[in-house]
Design goal:
It comes from Runella slithyformis (strain ATCC 29530 / DSM 19594 / LMG 11500 / NCIMB 11436 / LSU 4). InterPro entries: DUF2252. This is DUF2252 domain-containing protein. It contains 14 helices and 14 strands. By secondary structure, it is an alpha+beta fold. The protein folds into two domains: about 220 residues, no CATH class; about 130 residues, no CATH class. The strands form four sheets. It has a six-stranded antiparallel beta sheet, with helices on both faces. A four-stranded antiparallel beta sheet has the order 5-3-2-14. It has a two-stranded antiparallel sheet with strand order 1-4. The mean pLDDT is about 90.
Amino acid sequence: MNAIEHIKHYNAGRNALLLAHKYERMTEGLYRFFRATSHLFYADLAQHFTASDTSRVWGCGDLHLQNFGTYKAENRLVYFDMNDFDEAMLLPITWELSRMLVSIHLATEELDLEENESATLIRAFLDSYTKTLATGKPIDIERRTATGMLQVFMEKLEKRRRKDLIKERTVKVDSDRKLNVDNEKVIGLSPERKAAVETMVMDWQQQHPNPFFKRICDVGLRVTGTASLGLERYVLLVESPNEKLYLLDLKEARHSVLKPYIQLDQPFWPTEAQRIVEIQRRVNNVLPTLFNSITYGPKSYVLKELQPEQDKFDFNEWDGELETLETLIRTMGTLTASGHLRSAGRQGSSIADELIAFAQESKWQQELIFYCQAYPTKVHQDYFDFCEAYEEGFFEE
């Protein structure tokens, strides 16, 4: 099937209203389209990328510039790290890095950078990644160790307050607070669906050794992101035992987009949500607060706190200096290698010594750079075809 048919087939069965939002958002720009079509990317990679790579790492499976972000961890410090593991699997290093390098090419195009500047950033990421891998020592980045525009960004986030987020996302109804369904981020649910979600989460809560909340005040359908739009995703307003209000994110888990293409043996995961949670536990040094999987009937979900400090890096924060952008991308390279080292030797992944040896090889880097430099032409063509088909009504239900 061609790219347009592949997109429609991949998204079949999703919530029709949210899927319409997804398709509309995919027309807004090349990079957003790229973020939403990892299934196209890996189908092409499996066919055309021929580098020999015997490495095995626990990867997030969808590594790109905007799958790095900030979050408040269990120790209450704000960290910057990979933060989306929906597609996570055991995979070769070149497969993990390929999507990141293409995302750099596409992002620099949107930032109007020259080809040589894009090449500088590609080299910076790979240099930082391989040097960190070669040390065999993972690191993490929190506000006190951040530098440059990342430090400024994280300092701004630390000034955000939970109570302000609650006021922004809720409205007062009599003496209680409810989710603000007039906000574009939330859609109201039928009483039946709301009751089903409440039952699912309360059943899980009663089995949890340290209950985070005592009651659910409200539940809504959450509208956010692009790639996951159309899957079940809820926002819950809950009250803690000390009567503070919190927002929770509950997201449906499905199998990784990489599943049809990766030939490596994978562990048995009881549910897809447990796969996501367990791999993130291995890769991140410190986890976000209230990070758990929930199983309910045939489906599974990832539950976590929706935090005011949680955000993806906004490239509008960039000051226009290539050096500051290069520093940020080097940080991302360091964090990627650190995650691979942190999870080394677990259930089939390469041990640290193997990763160190791999970092010192150059052939795979040259082959990867060559492929990722050429691939954006395919993204352009797919985006053009998608926008044309969208205008002609091909994606209308």
